[in-house]
Write a structure and sequence with these properties.
Layout lengths: L26 E11 L5 H12 L9 H27 L8 H21 L3 E10 L3 H10 L2 E8 L6 H16 L6 E4 L7 H17 L6 E7 L3 H5 L4 H16 L6 E6 L12 H10 L4 E5 L8 H17 L4 E5 L6 H14 L7
Parallel strand pairs: 1-2, 1-3, 3-4, 5-6, 5-7, 7-8
Length: about 350
């Protein structure tokens, strides 16, 4: 109980005048953040979402005078139709939302339950999206209004990249700028080396291998790509992805030939990190690797890039090139081992703010 707030918890300061605004009981906020999702797969929902996403300087860093006319006239005239059609293929029609939204809600609920078991009502756990809804600003505002004097902000990206972690943090800081009484804030860094995260990945691979009637010839770890230029500018993402593959391989006790690293979701005319997954799996099929499994360690939740791109486009490329059996290993989502890893990372970042 904070000093000066009455025991009844009514939000009244014990020595304040009667007309003093209500004061919420102090809490600590834990705000999970993911990339985002359109509100629907119709043209205008897709256009709003893609315009916000592709206007982010962390994602596309071309000068606005050059990029925005192309984006607003050419790209956004066509891409909402194709992207909307892809979203429709994977849409959660029962909840009328994207799988990313459904999974992020489930992750948040599981994390909140685990933290409540440890800390009672001292924490307020919620989630936001960098693009689309619920917005980062709306959730920061809700936490401040609920009495959160401290917030741990957790971008759900195991690896750091300017186009993911950094832009999520940027938006969080912008939200703080709008608050009269800013809470103390901590930003959770990348967690790809966390042993519980690697363990959760390894367990998902072991389950897939155990369920296969005929074991895959190898595993492809497909990470979201980025322009090679970003690597040369100092972004550590590529190196962190390579290390994740190595840590996973070591945990599984496999040889180097059993796990390949590749990159997907290439966009625009620049050279991106190689090898490209869609090309690499076709090359594997042509080289006689007829059975492969693919995992996406850079994604904390299944989304358009995994459910449609990997399990659709990339699968088709492999089978068209002569492959026979393609296994997609789902993201960790709200798997109990993944939730345990996320809770461990959160508690590390709560150190000094709350007892374990």
């Amino acid at each position: 109980m904070a000093s000066g707030i009455d025991k009844a918890g009514e939000g009244r300061l014990t020595h304040a005048p009667a007309d003093h605004p209500p004061v919420a009981r102090p809490k600590i906020g834990v705000l999970l953040a993911n990339l985002g999702t359109p509100d629907g797969y119709d043209y205008w929902s897709m256009r709003r979402y893609l315009s916000e996403f592709l206007s982010d300087k962390r994602v596309i860093d071309y000068p606005a005078w050059k990029w925005q006319p192309l984006l607003q006239t050419v790209i956004l005239a066509k891409r909402p139709f194709t992207s909307g059609a892809n979203y429709k293929l994977i849409w959660n029609t029962e909840a009328n939302e994207s799988p990313l939204m459904t999974i992020t809600k489930a992750q948040t609920a599981a994390v909140a339950a685990a933290l409540k078991d440890r800390h009672g009502d001292a924490l307020m756990v919620d989630f936001c999206m960098r693009y689309g809804n619920p917005s980062t600003q709306s959730k920061v505002r809700a936490m401040v209004q609920a009495g959160c004097e401290k917030i741990v902000f957790f971008p759900l990206y195991p690896h750091y990249a300017g186009a993911t972690s950094a832009t999520a943090n940027d938006q969080f800081f912008r939200a703080l700028m709008a608050e009269t009484r800013q809470p103390a804030a901590r930003v959770v860094p990348e967690y790809f080396e966390n042993p519980l995260y690697i363990e959760a990945l390894a367990q998902s691979v072991e389950r897939a291998w155990a369920a296969a009637e005929v074991k895959p010839d190898l595993l492809v770890a497909s990470y979201h790509g980025m322009p090679q230029r970003y690597l040369r500018q100092g972004d550590p993402y590529h190196c962190q992805c390579q290390k994740t593959t190595r840590l996973l391989r070591e945990r599984l006790g496999w040889g180097k030939e059993m796990i390949h690293t590749s990159f997907q979701s290439v966009f625009g005319p620049e050279e991106w990190l190689r090898p490209y997954t869609v090309e690499h799996v076709a090359e594997l099929a042509k080289a006689g690797k007829k059975r492969i499994a693919v995992i996406a360690p850079a994604f904390s939740a299944d989304c358009i890039e995994t459910l449609e791109e990997i399990n659709g486009e990339i699968r088709e490329a492999f089978l068209h090139a002569g492959g026979e059996d393609f296994t997609y290993i789902p993201c960790l989502n709200d798997d109990s081992a993944h939730v345990a890893a996320l809770v461990s990372v959160i508690e590390d970042n709560l150190a000094g703010w709350i007892g374990r």
